[in-house]
Each structure stands twice: as C-alpha cells, then as structure tokens.
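Run log // design_07
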C-alpha cells in the first residue's frame, strides 16, 4: 500500500466503486457509524490546522488498520485495501473541505499576496530570466502544463489536487526529455526541470496556490505521498518558495530593473481596470485607480501611469457602453480571485458532466435551464444596447482534442488520459481522479445505515 502512486492504473477502477459497494454491506455498519461520528465531531471543533491534520491522519490510519482485519477485506489483495483507503480519504476530505481548506487567515493573506505578485511578474518574465536553455524553451507546449496546474481548484480530495500537480510536472518532464533527445543531449535533470516548473507556475498563477499545497501536505495520506509523487510535489513546494520570494536577483536581473518592471506591470493592469471603471460613470472625468498594496512610491507610479492612459482615451471610454463581453471578462476576473468561487459552480449540477453521463430524465431539466440562460443573456444584452445576434456563447473546450494534444506532445499515455474522465463512477480509468464537485453519494448511505442500526 505504501508504494501506491496517484498515476497507478491498478487501483483506479477499484478506488471509488469498491469503497461505496463495501460500505453498503450490512457488515460495514460499524464503519459507517464511525465515519459519520468522526465527521460530526471534527466539524464541531474550532479550526486548528496542525491539530486537524493530525486528527485526520490518525483516523485514516486507524480505519485502514480496521479494514485490514475486517471480513470484507480479510481475503482481499493489497489493491483492494489500497482502494478502501483511497475511497475513505476522498469521502472524508470532500465532506470536511469547507471546514479545513484555507481555514487560517494567514493562509488566505498569503494566497492573495502571492496571486497579485505573480499577476505582475507574469507580465514581463521570460525564460531567459530563469536561465532556461534555448534547447528546452517551448512556451506553446508549456501551456498544457499550465492548464493542468490551473485545474487544482476544481477538486476537493487531496489526491485529486495532487494529481493536478503531478500532471503538470509530467508534461514538463516529458517535454524536456523529448527536447534533449531531439538535440542529442544528455537527459535533463533537476537543474533543467525546476526552472521550467517555476516559469509554468508563474504563468499559470492558480488562485489559492499556497492553500492548495498546504491542503495536500496536511491531508494527503502520509503513507501514499512517496516515490514519484513525493519527488514532484517537493519540486512544486520549491517552486512556490521561489515565487514567494522572487526578486531581481532571483531573475538574473538588476533590482532597479525588476522594480521598474513591477511598476510598469502595475500601471498596465490597474490602468486597464481604470479604463473600465471610468465607463461606468460619465460624471467623473478621471476615476481613481484601484489601491495598490505596495510601497508609496509604487502607488504614485501606478497612479501617474493610469491617469495618463485614462487621459488619452477619456472621450472614447466615457462614450463606450460596456458590452456583454466586457462584463463577462470582468466577472471572470473577479470569480477567479474569490475564495468561494467554486461554490458558484456547484449550483449547476451538469457543468462537469459528459454527454454519456446524462440520463433521459435529465433532458427536461437541461432544456429548462437552457431557456432560462438564453432569456437572461439576451435580456442583459438588450439592457446594454448590444445586439443579441452578435452575441456568441463562450467556446467549449474539446476535452478529447486536449487529451490528444497532451498525449501527442508528451508521449506519455497515462497523462493523456487525465481529461478523458467519466462522472458515472467518479474516477478516471487511468488516474482514478474523481471529476465532480458534488459530494459523494455515500452521505445518504451513512445516514440510512446509521439510522437502521439505531432502530
């Protein structure tokens, strides 16, 4: 069990279905009651990250020991026991997610500061600043790695978040290896890998990166965070430490030049924000830019640059009516920065479904939802004076094409399956990643079986 890896295909088909099925067995009623009791007790205690982590690790360890001695698993294989442990971790942490994720104010503060800092650095950083050799530079293909890392906020289970990190790292590793082969050079090592991971992390800039990594550290079963998983995750922690303390020296750049670049990036970002705000009120000739959380000299530089941009385009901006697209982009930016953004998507049960997941009974619900969406969207457009015929719905990503692109670029068949997932069993055939945001259905089983036992 200790050698299990998140990319192991052997445990994936068993992980979720097997756990659910065995928990439905009458002989598992004591397990069901213990799980329910732990969740209730844990949820009613005040947040304390270190104590919470220790409590979860101890409960998972004790339950896995109990699984091993129970008739349901007594004659089972190591794969089945590992499956039970993975299923238990997924269920427990999905239930406790809102209680433990980013539960400390200091973690939330670090998340916000890191997100804002990387948003500025990504405006001017280049591979050369991290001493990435030309042989290994491939920014177009690195977009695939960025996409994998940006998925980390979608999931609740520690293993699923970890797989996002490992997927990102595997894309980078395979790209570097292929580049070395094409250039007839020695296989790349950590000195080549880490700078690219840092660059990808800056460009991806996933919200709540610090809290996500802490969450994996605290609640991923310790006995499973080993081997390749531990190696890549350690590199991700190193990348986070680097970007947290990033400065001119770390980017092979004069400190004065670094500060000038940061100020220019602030002027660009907040200047664009000022453009939109000025369109909201025609009575204010020169709107103040949003406050910048830096030293006073930077504030002055940002304000000066923003006012200059606004003065040049003032007449055009004031006359402009924000389009539906403007509002969509602004809303998406706000959503990405909100701590509770994932809850917004939980209101839409079909958002993460595939066509094959839908049942005949879902058609009516989907049709009603579609009609409401069209009515609201067109009404909004009319209210803004935008022709509804010119409105195009957002493009839908073709997951199959994306998966093929990852597979073709990296040459890694396992990773190419990350996007090719099914909601019906909650797992991916290659990685075992639970893809939905809704809570597992074991909740109903826990309640019903506990009630039956009491009666």
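design_07 sequence
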């Amino acid at each position: 069990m200790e050698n299990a890896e998140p990319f192991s295909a052997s445990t994936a088909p068993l992980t979720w279905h097997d756990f659910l099925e065995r928990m439905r067995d009458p002989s598992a009623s004591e397990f069901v009651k213990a799980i329910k009791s732990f969740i209730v007790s844990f949820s009613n205690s005040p947040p304390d990250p270190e104590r919470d982590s220790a409590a979860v690790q101890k409960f998972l360890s004790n339950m896995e020991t109990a699984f091993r001695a129970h008739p349901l698993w007594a004659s089972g294989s190591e794969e089945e026991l590992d499956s039970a442990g993975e299923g238990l971790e997924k269920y427990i942490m999905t239930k406790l997610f809102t209680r433990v994720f980013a539960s400390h104010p200091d973690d939330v503060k670090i998340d916000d500061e890191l997100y804002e800092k990387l948003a500025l650095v990504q405006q001017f950083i280049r591979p050369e600043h991290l001493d990435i050799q030309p042989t290994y530079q491939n920014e177009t293909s690195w977009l695939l790695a960025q996409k994998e890392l940006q998925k980390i906020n979608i999931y609740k289970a520690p293993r699923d978040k970890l797989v996002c990190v490992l997927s990102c790292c595997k894309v980078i590793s395979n790209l570097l290896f292929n580049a070395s082969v094409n250039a007839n050079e020695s296989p790349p090592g950590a000195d080549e890998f880490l700078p690219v991971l840092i660059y990808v992390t800056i460009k991806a800039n996933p919200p709540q990166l610090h809290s996500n990594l802490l969450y994996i550290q605290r609640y991923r079963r310790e006995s499973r965070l080993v081997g390749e998983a531990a190696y890549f995750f350690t590199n991700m922690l190193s990348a986070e430490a680097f970007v947290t303390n990033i400065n001119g020296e770390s980017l092979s750049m004069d400190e004065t030049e670094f500060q000038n670049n940061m100020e220019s990036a602030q002027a660009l970002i907040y200047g664009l924000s000022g453009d939109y705000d000025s369109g909201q009120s025609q009575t204010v000739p020169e709107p103040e830019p949003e406050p910048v959380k830096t030293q006073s000299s930077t504030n002055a530089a940002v304000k000066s640059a923003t006012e200059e941009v606004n003065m040049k385009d003032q007449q055009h901006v004031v006359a402009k009516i924000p389009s539906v697209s403007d509002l969509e982009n602004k809303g998406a930016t706000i959503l990405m920065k909100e701590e509770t953004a994932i809850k917004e998507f939980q209101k839409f049960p079909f958002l993460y479904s595939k066509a094959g997941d839908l049942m005949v009974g879902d058609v009516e619900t989907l049709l009603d939802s579609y009609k409401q969406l069209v009515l609201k969207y067109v009404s909004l457009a009319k209210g803004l004076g935008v022709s509804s015929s010119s409105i195009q719905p957002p493009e839908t990503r073709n997951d199959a094409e994306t998966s093929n692109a990852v597979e073709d670029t990296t040459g890694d068949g396992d990773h190419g399956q990350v996007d090719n997932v099914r909601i019906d069993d909650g797992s991916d055939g290659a990685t075992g990643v639970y893809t939905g945001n809704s809570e597992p259905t074991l909740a109903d089983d826990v309640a019903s079986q506990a009630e039956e036992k009491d009666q």
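The longest helix spans residues 158-182.
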